[in-house]
Amino acid sequence: MNKPYSKSTVREYFESIVIAVILALFVRTFAVQAFKIPTGSMENSLLVGDHLLVNKFVFAPTEFDFEAMLLPTRKITRGNVVVFKYPDDPSRDFIKRVIGLPGETIELQNKNVYIDGNVLDERYTKFLELPLEDPSKQDQNNFGVRRQYGPVTIPAKQYFVMGDNRDNSQDSRYWGFLPREYIKGQAMLVYWSYDVKSERRSENIASQLKQLFTKPRWKRLFHQIH
After folding, report:
1. Is 1 among the domain residues?
2. Residue 41 a catalytic site member
3. Residue 163: which CATH number?
4. Could you confirm whether 96 is annotated as catalytic?
5. Which of 8, 77, 128, 194 is deepest in the core (most CB within 10 A)?
6. What is the pTM (predicted TM-score) of this model?
7. Number of domains the chain contains
8. Is the distance from CB of 102 to CB of 154 less than 8 angstroms?
9. Contact (Cβ atoms closer than 8 angstroms) between residue 221 and residue 188
10. Residue span of the structural domain in which 213 resides
């Protein structure tokens, strides 16, 4: 009587490792991407040293209606924080907030955003210099795109994106509209955050060990991005 076939322990470990690698590559390529915040353009929503998880699947293009019904995808909407390929250099990834949608007319008046003539309520913004209550008193020489822009109509399949830190962000005001195909995914949550701005280099081992516990922003761990 033949003995039942059984895999060797080495082969089982090997197959498990191969499957794990394939799954990790699939998740990394098609589902989730890690992203680190290098600048303060999205303060105070996102801080320098925040490490994010980006959902690359949520905005995946669908060709047929049944795909949209079966797959957990959704349309890009105003307010989404998205990671995308920088149009002037697609090898670089940027992160901004979607402000204007295809077909809408966008305008900045004294730093306030107007969509189709209606002012946009933006509680997430940060300004180095606050908008004036009386626009007529503003410096007539200060008409840069930080304060005044448009009106312009956003073309089909393109978006207008801006950083939350409006006076310290290179965004659509400077380099134009963002094509739909350049958007890689939506920022989901902060999985790690480290205060790199206040970090001090030290050769003292005790000081280095102390920074391992004092520099992480523990309260930001698993913070959802809105």
Report:
1. no
2. yes
3. 2.10.109.10
4. yes
5. 194
6. 0.77
7. 1
8. yes
9. no
10. 21-101+157-224
